[in-house]
Structures are given as C-alpha cells and as structure tokens.
Amino acid sequence: MTDCASCRERLMEASPAELRRVVAGRPEGRVTSVGPSGPGSKGIAGHLARCPACRAEVERVVDGLDALDMALDGPPDGIDVDLVLRRARNEQDRAGRRWPRHPVRIAAALLAAATLALLFRQQSDGPPPRPTPVIAALPSVPDVEVPAGRNVAVLPTDNPAITVLWFF
Amino acid sequence: MTGRTARIPTRLVSLARTGDEAALRELVEAAYPMVRRWALVRTGDPADAEDLTQDVLVTMIRKLQTFHGDARFESWLYALTRNAALDRHRRTARARRSEGDPRTERELKPTCPPDPARSLADAELRTALLDLFRRLPERQREVVDLVELRGLGAAEASEVMGVEPVSVRVHLFKARRSLRSLILAERPDLAEELP
Hints:
The structure holds 2 protein chains of 2 kinds. Chain A is mainly alpha-helical. Helix content of chain A is 55%, strand content 8%.
C-alpha cells in the first residue's frame, strides 16, 4: 500500500513529463511503474487515484513549473536591433582606435622597438664594466695580547676611536 | 516554452560572419529570446536581464569572427552570457563596496514591475516564482531551465553548459527536490491562482 509520504518522495524525482501524464490522467512510466511495491506495481497510480491531496500536489508542482517557464520567457518586448548593431560598431571603433590601424604606423613602431632591442643587446654584449676601485682606509688593528688557551676577535666600529675586543 | 528546440541555423551564423547586414540582424533577433532567458536565469531580475542581454548581443557581434564552429553556436553564446553575467556581478559588487553598502545583491533587487499586459495576480505569481527560483544556487537554476523547463537531455545540457553530464544530473537531482519543495511549501494557493 502506498502512502502519501512515499508518493510525495516519488514525485520529487519524477520528470516533468511524468508529472504531466499524472495531471492529464494518464499516469504511466516511472511514476507508476517503480513504487514501494516494486516495478510494474500500480501502487502510486492507485494512490493518486484515491488521494486528492497528492493529486493536487502534483498539479501544483506542474502549474508552478509552467508559471516559472512563462516568467523566464518574460514579456515579448523584442530587441532594438539597430541599437545593438550601433553599439557593437561603436565599441569596435573604440577598440580599433586603441592601436594605430595604419600599417605604416605599426611598422614604424616595430622598427623602433627592434632598434632599441639591438642597441640594448650591443651594450650588454660589451666587456663588463670594471668595478670602481674603492679606496677605504683600513682601520688600524691594535696589538692584543691573548691569554693562553683563549682567542680574541677584533671588531672595528664606525667610530675609529672605538674597537671592540672579544675574548672567548 | 519557447526555444525548447530552437537552434540557430549554422548557415545564418556563417552568413553573419561575412558581415552580411541582413544576416546579422536576423542573428540578433534569433539569439535574443535565448540570451534573454539565460540572462534572467543568471540575474533573477527582469531589468538586469534586459541590460545583460543587450551587452551579450553586442559582444556576440563583436566576437563573431572568433567563433569557428568547433562547438555548437548555442554553447558559445551561453559561455558569452555566463562571462558577461560574471563581469556584471563583479562590477556591481565592486561599486557597492566602494559605496560602503553592505547589502547583498539579493536585498537590493527591486521587485518586478507589474506587467500591464497581464493581470496583477498573474504578474505577482510570476514574480513570486522567480523569487523562489532565485533561491536555488546558480548551477541548479541553469539545469532547471535547460533540462526541467526546456526539455533538453542531460547530455545536450552538458554540451551547452560546458560541464560533464554527470554534473548536470547531480545538480538536477538536487534542484528538482529544492524547487518542488519550495513550490509546495510556499505556494499552497498556486492551483487556485493560476488562470
């Protein structure tokens, strides 16, 4: 025996075509052939015939889908084709103006770029620039007597008057 | 369910690629309902969807030369719509951050203006259903639209979306449950409201 819950469960998965057959009074296909009582049973078909509440639910779902379909189609306003074509041409013109369309201009730009690239390459192929000699006064390292068994690190500072001695 | 089996003819695309003005116009008109619907699925808002649609159609014309027919034209168009929607979303989010507005896009969405050609109740119902639909994650919205509403198979939808068919099936399974539960829970009066 099919109850309302299993009938509703089945109707949640049925295709719109199957639901329409139910509404039209011709319940065939999966809705009726696959029910809790097994394939080929008339469980759901029988239940729908007896239960006006379930039938009404099917009708509401079908009507809802139809209304949604109509809502998505919208009012048949049509489109202003001239406006669309005009906009497309304007946008194409704007896009075209972003780059010089004249072939001579394009060639000139490419030539300039190639010349620059060549110059840059010639520069980079030459001998590497000599490092500028840095003449810096080496700080005078003080003579330090290190006790036996120990080492010392001499750390000059920015201040020539101060040198840090680290015994370790 | 317009556009369920709609496919833009390859001949039309080829002709438009040569710059033929009449073919370009025809292509824009043929692509409009498809793109508009995808845009609405992405944005959830009719006004935003119109703006996005126009952006996508302009991009379609500009980039038509980059379409070489390796994939379906609809898949290429779908990718354009998706990218345009993402760009738009980023721009909106950036603008909002710079204005110091902490609200989410969802909270900022205006309600759909009532369609004068239809009854108020009808327009309200559609708005309510779009609201429910907007609660689904983006991928689920896409599969609901392509498979559940437009009737594409999982393989065909996966081709359009550029994902694996198994991914479509997984999203579809979740989306069906979520959307139907929402419809049943939040619109108990649905059958009475419909014309």
